[in-house]
Amino acid sequence: MASESAIAGILLGAGMSSRMGQNKMLLAVAGESVLRGGARRALAGGVSPLIVVLGAEADRAAAELEGLPCTIVQNRQYASGMTSSIHAGLAALPAATDAAIILLADMPLVTADMIREMMQRYHETGAPLVISRYGGVIAPPTLFDRSLFIELLSSDGGRQVVQRHQVAAQVLDWPAATLVDLDTPEDYARLTAR
After folding, report:
1. How many domains does the chain have?
2. In 16-136, where do the E strands start and end?
3. Which H/E stretch holds residue 162?
4. Which of 78, 144, 151, 159 could bridge to 14 as Cys pair (CB 3.0-4.6 Å)?
5. Residue 2 counted as domain residue
6. 152 near 78, Cβ under 8 Å?
7. Reduced to 3 states, what is the DSSP secondary structure of residue 143?
8. Whole-angstrom Cα distance, residue 82 to residue 183?
C-alpha cells in the first residue's frame, strides 16, 4: 500500500491544434478556457504540484492560468508530438515525487472526482499504474508510479508503458460519454451544444 503522499499532475496543453484551426486551449467551455478548466479540475482533484506543459502560443495560454497555483513548463519541441510534452513535464517534477497523473487539457469532461478516485486507488493498492477506461477504451488520465518514470522518459509515449504494465494496473471504469477529446470544430460544437 502506498503512503498518503502527494501525487503530482502533468497537464498537457502544448499541441498545435491543427485540426481545430485555432488554439483549442483558448476555447471557452462552461465559461472558462479549456486550459484553465483542465488546470482548475486537476488542482481541485488534489494533485500537488501541478505542472502545465505549454507549447503553441505559450504566452497567451499562460495568461489563462493566472492566479492558479501551477508550474508552467514550455515545451519548445511541441511540434514533434505529445511524447516531448510528457518528457518536459516529467523533467519538471520535484525529485521526491512518488507518482504523477498525466492529463490532457482537451478532455473537458474529466472531473476532479475522477482524479481523486485515481489517487485513492493508488494509495489503497500501491499499483504501479492506474488507468482510465471509457466503455472499453483506455485513455487518459493515467497515473504512473515513480518506478515507471525512467521507462516513460525512454519511451515513445505513455501508451507503450501502459501496454507493457497493464497486467499490474488498477483500472477505473468511467462512462463512455465522458471520453470527449476536443480535436475538431465539430467536437467543440457537440460539446457546447450539450
Report:
1. 1
2. 28-29, 32-33, 50-54, 71-74, 99-104, 129-134
3. helix 158-165
4. 78
5. no
6. no
7. strand
8. 14
Phi then psi dihedrals of residue 141, to 5 deg: -75, 155
Asked if 134 and 180 touch (Cβ cutoff 8 Å), the reply is no
**What integer is the mean pLDDT of 166-189?**
86
pTM, two decimals, is 0.92
pLDDT of residue 18: 65
**What letter does residue 26 receive in the DSSP assignment?**
G
Angle at 151 between CA 42 and CA 169, to 5 degrees: 60
- Residue 27, exposed/middle/buried by CB under 10 A (0-12, 13-18, 19+)? buried
**Residue 83 sits in which domain range?**
8-193
Q: For cell 460519454, what's the residue?
A: 177
Query: Nine-digit cell at 4?
Result: 498518503
In the chain, the amino acid numbered 72 is I
pLDDT, tens digit (0-9, with 9 covering 90-100), for 99-120? 999 999 999 999 999 999 999 9
Report the CATH number at residue 63: 3.90.550.10
| Residue closest to 14 by CA, chosen among 65, 63, 84, 71 | 84
In this structure, is residue 1 part of a structural domain?
no
Cell of 72: 508552467
Find the helix packing angle between 34-45 and 112-125, rounded to 10°: 40
Quick check: is 45 in a domain? Answer: yes
